[in-house]
Design goal:
Elements: E1 3-11, E2 16-24, H1 27-36, E3 40-41, H2 45-59, E4 66-71, E5 74-79, E6 83-86, E7 89-92, E8 99-104, E9 107-112, E10 117-119, E11 122-124, E12 132-137, E13 143-147, E14 151-154, E15 157-160, E16 170-175, E17 178-183, E18 187-188, E19 194-195
Antiparallel strand pairs: 1-2, 1-3, 4-5, 6-7, 8-9, 10-11, 12-13, 14-15, 16-17, 18-19
Pfam family, one: EGF
Keywords: Disulfide bond, EGF-like domain
Protein name: EGF-like domain-containing protein
Length: about 200
């Protein structure tokens, strides 16, 4: 909370009494209003309050990207879009269309909306399809999908391993990141493509 120092000469009905204070914004006005009854001020209180409010307005600066106000005696910045508060000023802070930008101390932080992830200070799309458990970006920005069992990453999306006719005369069975063909009777080969000549 900012403070405002002042010298104020207060006179009661019997004599003088000099008081020096340093009080927080908001508390000052409350104290002055309480002391108004039973005391005479050497400086007209209404003029003092007007000057204090003008001083307070000058202290309330959020920069060119913000609107400043006081709430409960504390300074409050309302920052415009693509900006965020940093050390009492609204400064540019952009994480892209998939994220919200905030500052933790002086450090920029992007809060990304799923399935987006942070990459070089921006939230970028990272979607592997409905059959993925998660998506992340590699060192060079390539998408890396963690697919559900029976699915494998093909062209950036989790695709069913046995989707295509991998086994011509048999059934496809997913095994880890690959598959195996269970051939129908009378067929052999890795794709059940060979007909048994015997028998």
């Amino acid at each position: 909370m900012e403070s405002f120092s002042f010298d104020l000469l207060i006179m009661d009905n019997n004599g003088h009494y000099n008081m020096e204070e340093s009080v927080g914004q908001g508390i000052l006005i409350q104290n002055l209003k309480r002391r108004r009854d039973g005391f005479r001020f050497s400086y007209p209180i209404d003029i003092f309050i007007e000057k204090y409010n003008a001083h307070r307005h000058l202290q309330c600066d959020c920069g060119v990207y913000g609107f400043c106000s006081f709430k409960g005696g504390d300074k409050f910045c309302s920052c415009s879009p693509l900006t965020s508060e940093k050390r009492g000023k609204c400064v540019e802070c952009d994480c892209g269309s998939y994220g919200l930008c905030v500052f933790e101390g002086s450090r920029k932080k992007c809060i990304c909306s799923p399935p987006a992830v942070e990459r070089d200070g921006k939230c970028v799309d990272c979607y592997c399809g409905k059959n993925s458990q998660s998506c992340r970006l590699g060192w060079f920005g390539q998408k890396m999908c963690n697919c559900h069992f029976g699915y494998v990453q093909i062209d950036g999306y989790c695709t069913e391993i046995c989707k295509d006719d991998k086994c011509l005369h048999g059934e496809c069975e997913a095994i880890g990141q690959g598959h195996k063909c269970k051939c129908y009777e009378g067929y052999t080969g890795s794709r059940c493509e060979k007909k048994n000549e015997s028998g």
